[in-house]
Amino acid sequence: MEEVIKKVTRKNPVESQILVIFGSNGDLAKRKLLPAIFQLYLDNLLPERFAVLGAGSMEKTEAENRTDVGASLLEFATKGATDNPEKLQLFLENVYYQKVHNETEEDFGLLKQYIDDLSARLELPQNIIYYFSIPPFLYEVVAGHLVKYGLNEEATGWKRIIIEKPFGYSYDTAIDLDKKLRNGFNEDQIYRIDHYLGKETVQNIMVTRFSNGFFEPIWNRKYIDRVEITASEKIGVGSRGGYYDTSGAMRDMIQNHLLQVLAVVAMEPPSIFDSESIRNESVKVLQSLRPIKPAEITQNVVRGQYIETLVDDVIQKGYRQEKGVAPNSKTETFVALRVFVDNWRWGDVPFYIRTGKQLPEHVTEVTIHLKPAPHQLFKQRCVAQSTNMIILRISPDAGVAVDFGMKIPGAGYKVQNVNMDFHYSDLAETKISEAYERLLLDCMIGDSTLYARADAVKASWKFVDPILQAWKTNQDIPLYFYECNTWGPKEANLLFGNKELKWRPPFKKFKTQ
Ligand code: BG6
Question: What residue ranges in 195-324 does DSSP mark as E strands?
Fold first, then answer.
């Protein structure tokens, strides 16, 4: 398996290419994309001949754009940029700009001309990635314009598009968007980015499972009692109220990131470790999710919304007071749900997933709760309730911990829970790459393993769509309000259906108890 994993982390030679960023003056480009590309440059992972072509609606010269990109890098790629001023200048020489108004068809004619000139001037083949860092309603518009001017044609080099989430707004719109993109691009040219899959620690779930002899034999319904996946955030919606109010936690986090994490936790081992085999296995999990019928929603799904709260003498705004949010909004900022994967391995094992904003910690982790030993010899002697857990901490303080009972030294047989843990930070020489670095490099190489495939996107919409529909149409389904800095509505614990069980509170410093 080790050999197999090396194949995925391989550093394939990256062909000379052009990265066109639509929406290059936007927040995502400044905060994530440009710093990620610059870091790849610092790590010598970019090809020798490479151009980043910003395509934005703002009128500006090449020189002005370079100044802007430099300023963004100093702000957001802080250490890499401030520590390497010369490299920063060299990098900026590879940055170009063309004004493109995404809704103006003719601008794409000018873009084509610009690309032809640039590739001739720099002797660059027309291997092009188009990154759609633009509002979702423009995806099909921009794709259509690219096709119109033949910017999708591969005679002069390969063409790939990277699409940000949300991929569609519902099951039907996702299918419709896919159809429209497929008018000019094949599935193997479409890279649907889900930054959770780019996280080193999410990939490590596969390695933990499939490269060790001792996890996989117990990774099934016989030994696992339940699985918890928590992605909590300390912040509210901030300046993204306008977007978030049309999305909500189900579309923003569950439909994509957390169902993908669930798929990685629950998938069967692929026969070989390549993009198609891995994605074939993970999509089967999504297709096996037991649909939640409208009448079962209240027992299986809890939604909540944060309200104005005094936290440490400071008033935290309620969701309805956030900019861009409707004053009577019913959008959920918290979701907890119980999900079943109806297959041979997982039959009747509940997966509990929750996510929310304005919770006490920013933590993402998966907890595998093992069933207790069949005969509890030491039950009376346990100093606390005995638990066996495997915790896969995605962030922060990434790592893995195993929690189990140990004899307290001394006379008698007193048992206490202890844990063995590994923290990525202990690997002194290792830097954990940002998700966008990994994903951009993969797309440059043509490796789509960590990108969501159309069938997976479809399967996860199919699962969440009926819940969203029921919320929209059935006024009787409650929206619970919760105070900021709490773990969401207390009703979320009712999903366990057993008074003794509740959500495991994740700690900032990663440990099991
Ligand atoms: C984004 C969501 O995709 O993921 C945000 O749109 C959310 O609302 C973010 O804050 C969480 O990502 P991370 O990597 O901070 O867990």
Answer: 224-232, 301-307, 309-311, 314-316
